[in-house]
Specification:
The chain has a domain of about 70 residues. About 35% of the residues lie in helices and about 25% in strands. It has a six-stranded mixed sheet, sandwiched between helices. It has a four-stranded antiparallel sheet with strand order 2-1-4-5, with helices on one face. α3 crosses α4, α3 packs parallel to α5 and α4 packs across α5. It is globular and about 55 Å long. The N terminus is likely disordered. The structure holds adenosine-5'-triphosphate and magnesium ion.
Length: about 270
């Protein structure tokens, strides 16, 4: 839909949108004509082998990288054309958990979670403590507030990084390989949290993974408040879609059911 300046603007229920994005780092394109849309409250699962371009795509959404061609929109703002100050403001609405957690090792769990709140300087110390406590209790880690990251297990570090990303109550979450390197049980705990954020907080999200089972879990489960667990429910499918990247090209975009039916040989191989 063209606006006055001739630029396309996304409709209101599309929160994240890439339009024909191309990005190279000198060599061949790392993302090659990628378009995608994420609706409000939806989780888009980015699938693809190592090096397919999943993390790069997320960094484009945050405005940490800019495309050579094409456009990136978040809400009604064109991230790919924004100045640093405007990006800074926009990033307050986006929580990102990086691959490898990326906690600050020299800061306590509390100070890691409070980091962006302290940067903002808006909350009183009491209100900040309350917020940190709320975020840590969301990930069931209230007890480790005063510990250092080195004292935590890998799964706990991931959960702290989710708590840190939640501190500013973001409307969008970017989860980069949130279950990478975790045992199956801990991975399930993390995926349950992601389902809870989707279904209780209606967070719009991108989730990068090469684990198909994480995507299917999202598509087949919904948060059940009564039991405080993620349970099998068809409605998960309504809020989850998939994009499969192959060497920077989006070769599939659709629902879990469509993914299962897709006849493309690479898609079949990826699913097997
Ligand atoms: N800053 C950079 N400079 C040069 N090349 C880069 C840079 N960042 C990423 N790349 C390259 O872009 C390609 C895609 O990288 P990306 O990190 O997005 O992969 P990925 O899909 O996240 O993989 P993984 O599953 O291993 O995390 C890779 O070939 C990588 O080497
Ligand atoms: Mg990656």
């Amino acid at each position: 839909m063209p606006s006055a300046g001739g630029a396309a603007t996304p409709p209101g229920d599309i929160v994240v949108r890439l339009e024909h994005v191309v990005l190279s780092f000198g060599g061949g394109p790392v993302l090659d004509d990628v378009s995608l849309q994420v609706r409000r409250g939806e989780t888009k699962v980015l699938l693809g082998e190592s090096g397919a371009g999943k993390s790069v795509l997320m960094k484009l959404v945050l405005g940490l990288l800019r495309p050579d061609r094409g456009r990136v929109w978040v809400f009604d703002q064109e991230v790919s054309a924004m100045k640093e100050q405007a990006l800074y403001d926009l990033r307050r609405k986006i929580g990102m958990t990086f691959q490898e957690s990326a906690l600050f090792d020299s800061l306590s769990v509390r100070d890691n979670v409070a980091y962006r709140l302290e940067e903002d300087g808006v909350l009183t110390p009491e209100a900040m403590d309350e917020r940190v406590r709320t975020c840590l209790s969301f990930v069931n880690l209230d007890a480790v507030m005063d510990k250092m990251p080195a004292e935590l297990s890998g799964g706990m570090r991931h959960r702290v990084s989710i708590a840190r990303a939640l501190a500013t109550s973001p409307e969008i979450m970017l989860y980069d390989s949130p279950t990478g390197g975790l045992d199956p049980e801990t991975a399930t705990t993390i995926m349950d949290l992601i389902i809870k954020l989707r279904d209780c907080n209606h967070v719009t999200a991108l989730l990068a993974t090469h684990r198909l089972q994480d995507g299917y879990l999202l598509a087949t489960h919904a948060w059940d408040d009564a039991t405080q667990t993620a349970r099998w429910a068809a409605e998960g499918a309504r809020h989850t879609s998939f994009l499969l990247l192959r060497q920077g090209r989006a070769i599939f975009d659709g629902s879990a059911a469509e993914l299962r039916r897709d006849a493309d040989p690479y898609v079949r191989e990826f699913l097997s």
